[in-house]
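Recap from last week: sequence in, structure out.
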Amino acid sequence: MRLFDRTTPPRGFTLMIAAATGSLAINVHLPALPGIAQHFQTGYAVVQLTLSIYLVSCGILQLVIGPLSDRYGRRPVMLCCFMIFVLSAGATIIAPSIEWVLFLRVLQASAIAGQVLSRAVVRDTMETDAAASQIAYITMGMSLVPMIGPAIGGGLDELFGWQATFALMFAFGIFAFAIVWFDLGETNSKKSASFVAQISNYPELLASRRFWGYTLAAAATTGTFYGFLGTAPFVASQILNMSPSGYGLYFALISVGYIAGNYCTTRFSRRYGINVMLLVGTGVALAGTLLSITLKAAGYFSPILFFGPVMLLFGHGLILPNANSGIVSVRPHLAGTASGLGGAMQVGGGGTLSFFAATLVSVETGPMPLLLVMLGSTLVAVFAALFVLRITRQEETV
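Predicted structure tokens:
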């Protein structure tokens, strides 16, 4: 058996690396945000836009990436996007101003193709419940990158400066491009007639109530996650007085919980179905958020008490693989378009909530505004899960 073979479905490792590229670009530079602000002599709110603008750009790009892959194929679209990511990550190292950094972050959002098209590739070759399990395997593997990314990013920032975090993105992008080039063949066997025709299919997706339910659950969950990612570095550095490498290690707790949730999805989605797993996941995530708020309201606040309860975002590892499997399975012939449109709503909502949370938190307010934003978005996810269950039962009785 050859190590790489484009004539067979891609290995799970290939899809993990492809999906992990976008995740790395999200959070590896987060411990370096205070250093970037100091280097360019600008405020933290401006530097935090390197996350928010990246997420919003990801949302917009997914509206194009999905339909393009349905029209031209998964392989060429992913390779083209990864090339743009590599070039823009390398250019950020020598960026002369914060404005240039923000512009290049827009281009780096092309890495989101790895996540969008990995889901579409899985749906090309598997049925719904099996796809949820495979997506969870991919997510579990790719979560190792964001788990260690902030810790590595914090260490690189302390040793070599903030530019080193973008050098890591550049190197990882080259690696991902090479893996995809050698192992990913074309899985889209039913390409659409034209790009315009594919875009015209959006109304068919938007008319599906289940599509809206799955997307809302995923978007609210993503908002909770990114809201924490974008604001936690400020809380850690300015309120808890932690070093970049110190809170980079604490970020690993989030991924540990997330990976555990992914593992449970791989074990139980086929047995119980994606809708039950979605509801359980939102309940667990809600419990974690309520625990954080209760501890802070009672006056207990320390690094472990701030980051520790977020491990119960374990529920996110149950929510996202199952919600994303539902999104791409509502209309199987539109898997790429559905993945792109659903992903755009997820990441766009996440970017908006991330920026909103960052504007509310200060040294004076402490982390409570962030925790309340997380609570609100988690409650929306619970509502969406209940909505999907209700709609599914109605459709089954018809």
